Amino acid sequence: MKSIVLLSSGLDSTVAFKEAYDKCDEVMCVTFDYGQRARKKEIEFAKAICKKFGVKHTIIDLPWYRTFRGALTGREELPEISGRDLDNREITQKTAEAVWVPARNVVFLAIAAALAENYRYDLIVTGFDAEEAATFPDNTSGFVESFNGMLKSGTLTHPEIYVPLISMSKTEIVKRGLKIGAPLEWSWSCYKGEERPCGACESCLRRKRAFAAAGTEDPLLERL
């Protein structure tokens, strides 16, 4: 079994990577540079993960994406939110729309599908999860099911999207990552790309809450 892992070095993709690493005979990680604010940190950490585990790593530059709208690419301001609002669907739906990059996972998975077919990989692994799926439609099981259906008719080798975390919350992902030895100390969740996580963006807040709920310190903050 061979897999391509979409590795942004975020918490979810880092744990999904370790799931694939343990499951498969061969793994290749793909990281995208689409002009996102944290791209330098994401690429740096993804490289460190791949080096640590001795797996192939491909960085794909998408310069045309840098002009697309959205707070992640710096075209708009990052939304501000408090920790008490993380479960307020009305608020988080608006913040999700603010950081939305048009058709991002459609583009990423299409590229991964081409790589999988060309190099005969069986699985395309992503870190989609239940908490993200609440506000991001391209993280849902329905989206994955539809894309897998397309891969059956749109490719000759029929690679399959594998989503080991699809039913998990961030807290459950932290617990799973700790259990299987995922390199959480090399996972970067912050929307910004500064030397340390900002601790205030929605992604940082969700990560902070998850580690607190899991009853453990964040190994990234201990390492820095």
Largest sheet: 5 strands, parallel
Unreliable segments (pLDDT under 50, ≥5 consecutive)?
none
CATH class: Alpha Beta
Helical proportion, percent range: 40-55%
Helix and strand run? EHEHEHHEHHEHHH
In terms of quaternary structure, the protein is single chain
Radius of gyration: 16 Å
| Distance N to C terminus | 35 Å
Question: What's the layout of helices and strands?
Answer:
Blueprint: E1 2-6, H1 11-23, E2 26-33, H2 39-53, E3 56-61, H3 89-99, H4 104-119, E4 123-125, H5 130-133, H6 141-154, E5 160-162, H7 170-180, H8 202-213, H9 219-223
Parallel strand pairs: 1-2, 1-4, 2-3, 4-5
Helix pairs in contact: 1-7, 7-8
Task: Record keyword descriptors for this entry.
Rossmann fold; 9 helices; single chain; 5 strands; alpha/beta; 224 residues; five-stranded parallel sheet; 45% helix
Describe this structure in words.
Helices cover 45% and strands 11% of the residues. By secondary structure, the chain is an alpha/beta fold. Strands 3-2-1-4-5 form a 5-stranded parallel sheet, sandwiched between helices. Helix 2 (39-53) links the parallel strand 2 and strand 3 (56-61). 43% of the residues are buried. The model has no long low-confidence stretch (mean pLDDT 96).
